[in-house]
Write a structure and sequence with these properties.
With about 350 residues, this protein is an all-alpha fold. It contains 19 helices and no strands. The chain is about 75% helix and about 0% strand.
């Protein structure tokens, strides 16, 4: 089965709004900066935030919002530096820890980001977003149990968040807890039916649980929403083949190959489906295609050899078997009975 890239909901930055009644040069510059920033002009806003910082080097709000502007511009080092200034001035500012954590994530400094999200949790333990973003770091580091715990806490605080159900389901799936994953994907889709990746990943979980009809239905839903998903066609084909729907599987493999011509797995499995259908010329062609791109794929040589037996090409078949055994001597014991069976079936019946 092929999994897509897993996407997490990662909450972004927050603004500090100027309090009514503020006055003075720093506050006026900060207010003007906010207006420009909210108008989609972060570069111009930074100039005003610079003025505010120069007028009052202890105005935490100016550093905070300048950090936000740098973050919007993708200047993450500068953003992290400004959030650090906020934290020095206001060590209990949970949003500054949170935003700096996001900047560190972009900088691929996940150890620093993890500390910041943990600090934000310590200051504001009732904020779900802090647990979500820390959970995403745990997931990326394959600490799936820790990710589950964080996503679970986020759901306790916000039980109507479809994305967090989706994220927790991915963690369950990574831990091979397929039934729990299926349940959470269902919760996510009940809250937000547009989550196409939830259909896809639930389809994977169903297929891995041998619930192939359910898997096919979920891949159907993916293809309604994304008819160019080669992975959905491929995995739907695998599920169809598992319930002996080989003609339908061949159609899906073919579409997967049309959408992704560089994928060697689809022609390999289409070749196996053609073998099941007795279409040996097509099967041999597909395995030959695989061998071109994967010349050390012993299984492809074995199955092309079997197809060639039925084509009446005994010499070529034997050459394929010998090549396969050369590439992987360990497979001879397991595949020899299959080869012998194919030769017996293909042998013409004597009158």
């Amino acid at each position: 089965m092929k999994l897509p890239r897993i996407y997490f909901l990662v909450y972004s930055i927050f603004f500090v709004i100027v309090a009514p009644g503020w006055s003075g040069q720093a506050e006026l510059a900060l207010e003007e900066g906010l207006k420009l920033h909210e108008a989609g002009k972060p570069k111009e806003a930074i100039r005003e935030y610079d003025r505010a910082v120069k007028a009052d080097p202890k105005l935490a709000e100016a550093y905070f919002n300048r950090g936000n502007a740098y973050y919007d511009l993708g200047q993450n080092e500068q953003a992290a530096r400004d959030y650090s200034a906020v934290i020095r001035l206001s060590p209990k500012d949970a949003e500054a820890y949170f935003n700096r954590g996001n900047a560190y994530r972009r900088l691929k400094k996940d150890d620093f980001a993890l500390k910041d999200f943990s600090a934000a949790i310590k200051v504001e333990p009732q904020e779900a977003k802090n647990y979500i973003n820390r959970g995403s770091i745990h997931f990326d580091a394959r600490r799936y149990d820790a990710a589950l715990k964080d996503f679970g806490e986020a759901l306790r605080l916000n039980p109507k968040d479809a994305d967090t159900f989706y994220n927790r389901a991915n963690s369950y799936l990574a831990l091979d807890k397929k039934e729990d994953a299926i349940k959470d994907y269902g919760e996510a889709l009940g809250l937000d039916p547009s989550l196409v990746d939830a259909y896809y990943n639930r389809g994977i979980a169903y297929a891995d649980s041998a619930q192939y009809e359910n898997a096919i239905r979920d891949f159907d839903e993916v293809l309604v929403r994304n008819p160019k998903s080669s992975n959905a066609f491929y995995n739907r084909a695998l599920s169809k083949a598992k319930i002996d729907r080989y003609e339908a599987a061949v159609e899906d493999y073919s579409e997967a190959m049309r959408l992704n011509s560089k994928d060697p797995e689809a022609p390999y499995n289409r070749g196996r489906a053609y073998l099941r259908l007795g279409k040996f010329d097509y099967a041999a062609r597909d395995f030959s295609e695989v061998i071109v791109t994967q010349p050390r794929n012993a299984d492809a040589f074995i199955f092309r050899g079997i197809a060639r037996i039925y084509q009446g090409k005994d010499k070529e078949a034997d050459a394929d078997f010998q090549k396969a055994f050369q590439l992987n001597p360990a497979i001879k014991k397991s595949v020899q009975p299959i080869i012998d069976e194919a030769k017996a079936k293909a042998k013409p019946t004597q009158p």
